[in-house]
Design brief:
Layout (H helix, E strand, L loop, with lengths): L23 H9 L26 H6 L1 E4 L8 E4 L5
Length: about 90
Amino acid sequence: MEQDRAPPLLVHLDQLAWAPLRTYETIISLIGNTTNGVGLVVRARLDRRRYPIGKKISAKGLRDLNVEQDDFHGDWSYIIRPREKP
């Protein structure tokens, strides 16, 4: 790239001016409208139920979970599968 030339501008810059994620409805809509080229369908809805906070899980409880690291970025991407029946 020549030093005195600016990089090309994004032609579709207006498409990047999405609404800010300020409401639950905006976030749910963004998640629910996710698509890909092979027919992915995403359904999203807001769960307004109250859940207990500060609940502690024992080390044994964590060991009993059926957690698998994903092949792609297994350090932060994982799968929790149902427990196998004995």
